[in-house]
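so my prof wants the structure for this chain in the tokens format not the other one, which i didnt know existed until like an hour ago. anyway here's the sequence
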Amino acid sequence: MNLSDHEFTVVERHIRFGLDAVKGVGHQAVESIKHARAQGGPFQSLWDFCERVDARTVNKKAIEALIKCGAFGSTGASRRGMLAVLEQAQAAGQKSQQDAMIGQGSIFDLSPDASASAPPGAGAPTGLARPLYR
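here's what i got, hopefully its the right format
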């Protein structure tokens, strides 16, 4: 998820799986993933992924396929656990994206000690835990 591109590539004598080869994940979804990754750096968790990737191009079926093929392995969370919380993570991500589109933020976004330079999801725990402050 954090390193793959559209096509298979060879990196240090290992084959990196191309995201276009994952059934149910289309070209536009991969473009959206790459864009979010370029904007905010590596994804820290499923929650971070759902918050940052365009929910209009990466649907539930695509995310399920990515989880099942092991694309979220770098998060440290189990596939079963991620599948169990997928609906909640996706709903939270969609709400966050909708709020951003209409200019709403959390009261915590106004906190004077919030770092403006921190990348999205920087304070979020990795794995399955849902951040309490969002």
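also thought this was worth mentioning. The longest helix spans residues 79-102.
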